[in-house]
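Forum: Protein Structure Q&A
Topic: Joint prediction for protein chains with partners

I've read a bunch of threads here and the consensus seems to be that you should model interacting components together rather than docking separate models afterwards. I'd like to see that in practice. Below is the full input, 224 residues plus whatever partners are listed. Could one of the regulars post the assembled result?
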Amino acid sequence: EDQVTQSPEALRLQEGESSSLNCSYTVSGLRGLFWYRQDPGKGPEFLFTLYSAGEEKEKERLKATLTKKESFLHITAPKPEDSATYLCAVQDVGLTFGTGTRLTIIP
Amino acid sequence: DTAVSQTPKYLVTQMGNDKSIKCEQNLGHDTMYWYKQDSKKFLKIMFSYNNKELIINETVPNRFSPKSPDKAHLNLHINSLELGDSAVYFCASSHLGDSTTPQETQYFGPGTRLLVL
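Posted by a regular:
Agreed with the consensus. Here's the joint model:
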């Protein structure tokens, strides 16, 4: 059975303080690892898809990386508008999600 | 706008009632999904439909039944609602690859917040 574990559960950073979120996974055959952002009261918003170990993708202050066992979402010089819950998911039959990291950026 | 839309946004109802949630996508995708997000914010797959065929059926109660009139719509019918059904239900859509190809991105709707009293 696919499993996805995200850490930390919650993270508070000062504006401009860089950090990383972790997503550890076990899956029989990885067909994609997905990062989503979810704001309160809204649906998950797609950020990145990673398909193979060593792959990296960037978007503004976010950078996602992938190894054979985990993925990291690096946040560089975050701003308050980056505050959200970040969800990681793997694809088997349907998406299997982790429980998310609730990120708060303090001005 | 191209998107996944759901109605209603909020649904408050009594235990034992039957209700439906509608979902529509205009992204041209061939597969649609329903997810349940519980009070702890954990998202779990419930169903998916591809070309009008059910291809996933997780261990959800048979009180829940997905119905797809066409490729752009996947509705969720819930019979005999129970207190534990209270949650946020999300619809999503994507193109479906096969076991040898990468999975394409799923795009989510805004959610339907169901409260059973």
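The longest strand of chain A covers residues 19-26.
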